[in-house]
Amino acid sequence: MDDDIRSRRPGPGEYAEPYAGYVGEVPEGPILVGLEEEGARSLSFYGALDDARTRQRYAPGKWTVREVLAHVTDSERVFAYRALRIARGDATPLAGFDQEVWMRHLDADERSFPEMVEEWSHVRAATLLLFRGFQAKAWERRGVASGFEVSVRALAWIATGHELHHRRILVERYGLSPTG
Q: What's the CA gap between 81 and 84, in Å, rounded?
């Protein structure tokens, strides 16, 4: 496959403006490397947290660290599913999802945090394998998700940047250390 398409940041026409921040979070370079390296960093970050920290909220009504990780995991699945459908040429517009509704039904604070970290590990690994399997023509395909046109390539950057965005919030607002 043409490494250029994996290395070139998607242009604004490949994703909706609300996703620009996620795309902007991702360092330059081949996105498959970014998915893999940021996945490893995130596992180190989440894996170093003790149980008390995972139940922390930075303000009343905000998500716990556990809820943030569950949201990141759920969202990654959605981004990967969208990429799969579009890469396979399915032109059916894909619906959005209401993260607040999902949050009310996930019960993250009742789960084992180490199991949640393991689940995240497997989801990121599956995302990486999915994108590695796409040929160049699939990376260029576009579809509609949440009412906006998006390319498969942009979805790889969005998935990577979405997790980076939430990890940055955990550091900045929750006071967590990037090293745990």
A: 5
